[in-house]
């Protein structure tokens, strides 16, 4: 049997097991056992973190064992963990991810913590999403299960599809279907957004590898980008994105600028788990 020290964190109900070390420490089966909410700790994914060659890092394995390039809520949790554990100097630093480095600033350490993340610059280019379209999909027509939708495809370092007109009654079946749409070769996170004025929206996200989630940081950023690009929200102004787990503040700047996300992160408990050899 193998002992594993871990920390449990959550950001707006999007919960994670945080492990100091690299993803090579655990097998896919290990991660799935850990994330099992009935027979394990329970989590939307496992975050691996630490400092290598003087640089903080984060890698993400989803609850189903798949790899995610980036996780906005997870990054806030990792930033808080690195500060709480004294693994970094100060409260402003960069964290390397599989989607590139992201600047973070830990605003509050005491519960509930609050962290600002400079996310990567979004891209609507099909090759970046990736998506099989000849041109950027911006409020483009999509058909799924007999429903006609208009969607915007956005890369935040991971692929997102955002729609503002999906009927609530159809959302539960459309999320899993659109996630597996063949036009998205690496699958896609699907956001169902409803504007509540130019500065606020409600959002539900069906997340690759996790399903319906309480919150999705990159999904909130993608939805804000889609709102700005389609004229539903203002560029450079804060947008409150209210997810089932609570609100995030997102600011979308000029083309090529990084998206700024601010929201909570909370340490829940520390633990020790014994895994089979």
UniProtKB/TrEMBL annotation:
Record GO terms (molecular function):
diaminopimelate epimerase activity
Q: According to its UniProt entry, what is the function of this protein?
A: Catalyzes the stereoinversion of LL-2,6-diaminopimelate (L,L-DAP) to meso-diaminopimelate (meso-DAP), a precursor of L-lysine and an essential component of the bacterial peptidoglycan.
The name this protein carries in UniProt is Diaminopimelate epimerase
Q: Name one Pfam family in it.
A: DAP_epimerase
Pathway in which the depicted protein is active: Amino-acid biosynthesis; L-lysine biosynthesis via DAP pathway; DL-2,6-diaminopimelate from LL-2,6-diaminopimelate: step 1/1
Identify the residue position(s) of the site Could be important to modulate the pK values of the two catalytic cysteine residues: 160, 207
Sorted alphabetically, the keyword list is: Amino-acid biosynthesis, Cytoplasm, Isomerase, Lysine biosynthesis
Q: Where in the cell is it found?
A: Cytoplasm
